[in-house]
Model the fold of this input.
Amino acid sequence: MVNLKFMDGLIPVIVQDATSHEVLMMAYANGEAIQLTQETGLAHYYSRSRKKLWKKGEESGHFQKVVKILTDCDDDCLLYQVEQKGAACHTGYASCFYRTLAGELVGTKVFDPEKIYGKPGH
Done:
């Protein structure tokens, strides 16, 4: 087991589709979230804004089955390779990286966030 380097108790997690290799999202995890991910096979993260653990898909049903967890060369960032059910982004897009820096929409909208969360996405 590698010795992960957490900053303020958290480590960044890049999430990638295990088949297409598309980058789906970026989130943070603490030790407990990583342990739950390993135990259940479903992605768990730590929400900095809500200050609590969360399981991806617990509200939307858009779960992430983790196929593999990789660490970078410095052991300060993780890569989750996942089988994504539905969309990764809470805004309804397949990936959180759905627009260019200029604001051009380049992603695919998968669902209406208002129907799931009761409020529109960003």
